[in-house]
Amino acid sequence: MISWSIRRKRARGPFCMIGKCSSCFVKVDGKPYVRACREPLREGIRVERQRGLPEIPVIGDLATLKEENLSTDVLIIGGGPAGLSAAVKSAEKGLKVILVEDSFKLGGQLVKQTHKFFGSKELFGGLRGFQIAEKLAREVERNPNISVLTGTYAYGVFRDQIVGLASSDRTWRVKAKCYILSTGAMENFLPVPGNDLPGVMGAGGAQTLMNEYGVKPGEKALVVGAGNVGLIISYQLLQAGVDVKAVVEALPEIGGWFVHAAKLVRYGVPVLTRHTVKEIIGKDQVEGAVIVEIDEKFQPIPGSEKKVDCDLVLLAVGLTPDTRLLSQFGVQMRWVPELGGMVPLRTRY
């Protein structure tokens, strides 16, 4: 338990662990609405659980933050693999680059990927995800044309395409000749009863706990979604000593690669296609889940319900692109379900 739901009057636990949801708000040194997953631990920090609507904070400190005006050739927002690669390529052309990342480390999703990647040597084949992140980060940090701002948010786009940036102790107004947004995506929730209980997490959130911080997210897990993300997180749970009760997939076939599914089969983990989760059970945390078989129209088949004994439900049910800043830039957007939601209208390629 980290925070408290105002509406449901019950505990909330972490979900995405990348600062893109509201499940881990806490008070830090008296300041409310701080995301626990994005706040580095430091000596003397005071962390309190946020219950209900907090008092309005005193903004005197915020009003006196140092603000600086910056100009650059390229402003890149997002320090994951795409942002790091774009920074390196831009700097190699002699351009001055400012790279902004809201986490306190570079690498994005790669930092928690422990499996080896396929492909050629040029495409990092044979390296594990966190090794790729380290390699790209080193290239960025040793390039004199690239300035890196970690722990920094791009909070808005203003007149003349000036971008506002803010860290915990200062702010910037940046004007660039070119803007590159590599802000990634957000994990999807599943609209079922009990989906807000502590113990319901995104697959990526669980990877962060296990692979970055060495914390087991639970003891007995149900994984929803048999794409590559769901299959990989299931195997990593097994490696961490978590009992994976089942993987359920609404489609008639698994969506991930066979090599990942085969690992689970060898360990005796049932992968149930044409199944989904109907309800997540618990009072203060996950105590179980009900799965159900579905027909060709994705409707539950009466009488096929089964209870799964688990304290962890991981959702690997797709991603939604984080395109909020693109909208502020005035980019023309289109709803494309196959790409997860609102994406820029493509006028080239």
Query: What is the CA–CA distance across the termini?
Result: 46 Å
How many helices?
A: 7
Structural class: alpha/beta
Mean pLDDT over the full residue set: 92
Overall, the morphology is globular
Radius of gyration: 22 Å
The CATH topology name of the largest domain reads FAD/NAD(P)-binding domain
N to C succession of SSEs: EEEEEHEHEHEEEEEEHEHEHEEEEEEHEE
Work out the number of β strands: 23
Question: Strand share of the residues?
Answer: 25-35%
**Share in helix:** 10-25%
Please report the first level of CATH classification, the CATH class of the largest domain.
Answer: Alpha Beta
Report low-confidence residues grouped into runs of 5 or more: none
CATH homologous superfamily heading of the largest domain: FAD/NAD(P)-binding domain
Question: Biggest sheet: strands, sense, closure?
Answer: 6 strands, mixed
Spatial sequence of strands, sheet with the most strands = 8-7-6-11-10-9
Total number of domains:
3
The second-level CATH architecture of the largest domain is 3-Layer(bba) Sandwich
What does this structure look like?
Strand 9 (153-158) and strand 10 (162-166) form a beta hairpin. This protein has helices at residues 60-63, 81-92, 129-141, 203-212, 228-239, 258-266, 324-328; strands spanning 3-4, 11-12, 25-28, 31-35, 47-49, 66-77, 97-101, 146-150, 153-158, 162-166, 170-181, 185-187, 200-202, 220-224, 243-249, 271-273, 275-281, 288-293, 306-308, 312-315, 319-321, 333-336, 341-344. The protein has a six-stranded mixed sheet with strand order 8-7-6-11-10-9. A five-stranded parallel sheet has the order 13-20-14-15-16. It has a three-stranded antiparallel sheet with strand order 4-3-5, with no helix packed on it. Helix 2 runs parallel beside helix 3 (129-141). The mean pLDDT is 92. The protein has three domains: 3-63, no CATH class; 67-185 and 321-344, 3-Layer(bba) Sandwich (FAD/NAD(P)-binding domain), CATH 3.50.50; 188-317, FAD/NAD(P)-binding domain. The longest helix is centred in the middle third of the chain and has 13 residues, at 129-141. The chain is globular and about 65 Å long. The chain is of the alpha/beta class and 349 residues long. It is built from seven helices and 23 strands.
